[in-house]
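thought: user wants a sequence for this fold. calling inverse folding tool.
action: design(structure=
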């Protein structure tokens, strides 16, 4: 199965699992502050939650809104990930 054929739900779930594993590592092994690690956990796992919520949207506008929130969370996750890389 090619990368293109994997659903957004599956990809975001896999990503969330990776974020949780990274959070555990940051908590145990890294000198990254707890606040930064927690922000990474919250934003990284929120992406999939919002994509999942979009599937039950009550309107097209609600659907779009949920995916826009997921995009914002993805950008925030990227920001926090870069911060953890530099710490």
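)
observation: tool returned 87 residues.
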């Amino acid at each position: 199965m090619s990368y293109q054929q994997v659903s957004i739900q599956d990809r975001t779930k896999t990503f969330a699992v990776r974020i949780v594993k990274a959070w555990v590592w940051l908590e145990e092994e890294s000198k990254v502050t707890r606040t930064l690690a927690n922000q990474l956990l919250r934003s990284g796992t929120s992406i999939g939650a919002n994509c999942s919520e979009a599937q039950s949207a009550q309107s097209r506008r609600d659907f779009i809104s949920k995916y826009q929130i997921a995009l914002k969370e993805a950008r925030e996750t990227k920001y926090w990930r870069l911060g953890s890389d530099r710490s």
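thought: summarizing for user.
answer: Here is the designed sequence. Residues 31-87 form a domain with the de novo design (two linked rop proteins) fold (CATH 1.20.1440.60).
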